[in-house]
Structures are given as structure tokens and as C-alpha cells.
């Protein structure tokens, strides 16, 4: 199972999907494009405490986190 | 002589017991305060706090627990930044000799719980430092 974690005012919303289910993967891909298209940045964990940005949906990523667009404070 | 010895040893014993009670009381108070802090956090704050800890390295978790901040390395410059557990003026750039050389202010749009804000700051600096600093406001220390 893979997980897409979207930061939001509730803390986060998690979308779990089966990586071997083509329909679920397509839905996760659609969600990825929708979120990044509205300003979210996606990152995947590469090791404990380490991560990298991804610009395209990675169907093999076990955990992808999305955070909203950044602004100066 | 005997009564003096008895008085001295009694005084020492009483002082020792008082010291032990003070240490025990302080420990209990610290534990209670930590528990109260967790209880005071709203559900979203608790979820964000848990998510942040999932994505921190063991060293970052430990530093956050001990000092209220954790350190990250910028992806482009390898500079060290301290992300403090607060909403404003929370990112310190640390120079040589552990001196704080600048304060950077940026965060995700929308009202997210503090743990999410800190995690977004960490991810941004560790994966795309230039883009993060391009939107940030900087002030000197």
C-alpha cells in the first residue's frame, strides 16, 4: 500500500492506495496532478529524516507528502 | 556528646529527605507540564506534531525534544538553519561558531497547525532551499 499525505488545517488528510491496482494508481496520479497544479509541492522520503522533491507522480513511492505553496512571513 | 551526634545526624537525615522530596516533586511537575502541553494541543495540532516527528531524523527529533528547535541543511548552500517551535521569526541561519547570522520568515499558505508549518519549512529548505528563500523575508540578528 502507498500513501499520499496532504497537509491541511486538520493536520493532514491521508489517501491510501494499492500500488498494484491500476485504477487506484490512476486516481493517485490524478490527485498528484490536481494538487501540484494548485500550488502544492510534493516530496517523498528517501531515508529516515531525508526527502526529495518530485515534479511528476511516482507510482513506486510508498509515501508522498504535499505541502501548500510557500509565502514570506 | 551523644545528644549532639544524634541532633547532627537527625538534621542531616531531614535535609536529605527534603532534598529527595524536592527532586521527586520537580520531576513530577515536569512530567505533568509535558502531559498538560500534549492535552492542550488540539487534534489537528496533535496530528501535525505526529506527522512532523515521523519525517524528522532521530537526531532532529532529539534536538527538538531537548531544545525546542531542530537543524536542517540547505539543499543548495549546505548552510545550517534552526527551525524553532513557534510561528513567527522561527528560522535562524547559523554561521560558523554557532552564531545566528539571519532570521528567515516563510511558511505554507493557509492556517496549518504548527507541526505542519515546521515540516513544510524543513522539506522546503532540505529539498529546494533557493525557492524557499526566494519567497522568504530576511532580517539580520
Written description of the protein model:
The complex is a heterodimer of chains A (73) and B (141). Chain A is 22% helix and 47% strand. Chain A has a five-stranded mixed sheet with strand order 2-1-5-3-4, with helices on one face. Chain A is of the alpha+beta class. Chain B is of the alpha+beta class. In chain B, 60% of the residues lie in helices and 19% in strands. Chain B has a five-stranded antiparallel sheet. Strand 6 (70-72) of chain A pairs antiparallel with strand 4 of chain B, so a sheet runs across the interface.
Please specify the SSE layout and strand pairing.
The complex is a heterodimer of chains A (73) and B (141).
Chain A: E1 2-8, E2 11-17, H1 22-37, E3 41-47, E4 50-54, E5 63-67, E6 70-72
Chain B: H1 2-40, H2 43-55, H3 58-67, E1 69-73, E2 80-84, E3 91-94, E4 100-108, H4 114-135, E5 137-140
Antiparallel strand pairs in B: 1-2, 2-3, 3-4, 4-5
Number of strands of chain B: 5
Structural class of chain B: alpha+beta
Low-pLDDT residue intervals, each spanning 5 or more residues of chain A? none
Largest sheet of chain B: 5 strands, antiparallel
Shape of chain A: globular
**Mean pLDDT across all residues of chain B, rounded?**
86
Which strand order does the major sheet of chain B show? 1-2-3-4-5
Structural class of chain A: alpha+beta
Largest sheet of chain A: 5 strands, mixed
Q: Give the SSE order of chain B as H and E letters.
A: HHHEEEEHE
Query: Any idea what the radius of gyration of chain B is?
Result: 23 Å
Number of helices of chain B: 4
Strand order of the largest sheet of chain A: 2-1-5-3-4
Average pLDDT taken over every residue of chain A? 96
Uncertain runs of chain B are none
The total strand number of chain A stands at 6
SSE pattern of chain A: EEHEEEE
Could you estimate the helical fraction of the residues of chain A in percent?
A: 10-25%
Give the oligomeric state of the chains in this entry, treating copies of one chain as homo and distinct chains as hetero: heterodimer
Strand content of chain A: over 45%
Largest interface: A-B, 25 and 38 residues
Amino acid at each position: 500500500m502507498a500513501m499520499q499525505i496532504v497537509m491541511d488545517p486538520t493536520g493532514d488528510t491521508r489517501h491510501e492506495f494499492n500500488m498494484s491496482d491500476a485504477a487506484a494508481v490512476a486516481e493517485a496520479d490524478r490527485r498528484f496532478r490536481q494538487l501540484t497544479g494548485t500550488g502544492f509541492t510534493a516530496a517523498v522520503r528517501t531515508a529516515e529524516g531525508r526527502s526529495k522533491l518530485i515534479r511528476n507522480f511516482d507510482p513506486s513511492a510508498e509515501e508522498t507528502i504535499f505541502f501548500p505553496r510557500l509565502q514570506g512571513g | 556528646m551523644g545528644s549532639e551526634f544524634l541532633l547532627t545526624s537527625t538534621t542531616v537525615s531531614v535535609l536529605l529527605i527534603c532534598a529527595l522530596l524536592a527532586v521527586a516533586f520537580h520531576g513530577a511537575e515536569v512530567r505533568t507540564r509535558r502531559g498538560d502541553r500534549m492535552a492542550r494541543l488540539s487534534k489537528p495540532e496533535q496530528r501535525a506534531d505526529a506527522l512532523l516527528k515521523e519525517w524528522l531524523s532521530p537526531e532532529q527529533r532529539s534536538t527538538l525534544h531537548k531544545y525546542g528547535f531542530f537543524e536542517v541543511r540547505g539543499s543548495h548552500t549546505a548552510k545550517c538553519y534552526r527551525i524553532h517551535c513557534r510561528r513567527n521569526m522561527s528560522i535562524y541561519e547559523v554561521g560558523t561558531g554557532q552564531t545566528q547570522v539571519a532570521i528567515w520568515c516563510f511558511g505554507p499558505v493557509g492556517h496549518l497547525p504548527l507541526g505542519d508549518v515546521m515540516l513544510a519549512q524543513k522539506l522546503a529548505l532540505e529539498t529546494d532551499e533557493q525557492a524557499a528563500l526566494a519567497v522568504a523575508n530576511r532580517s539580520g540578528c
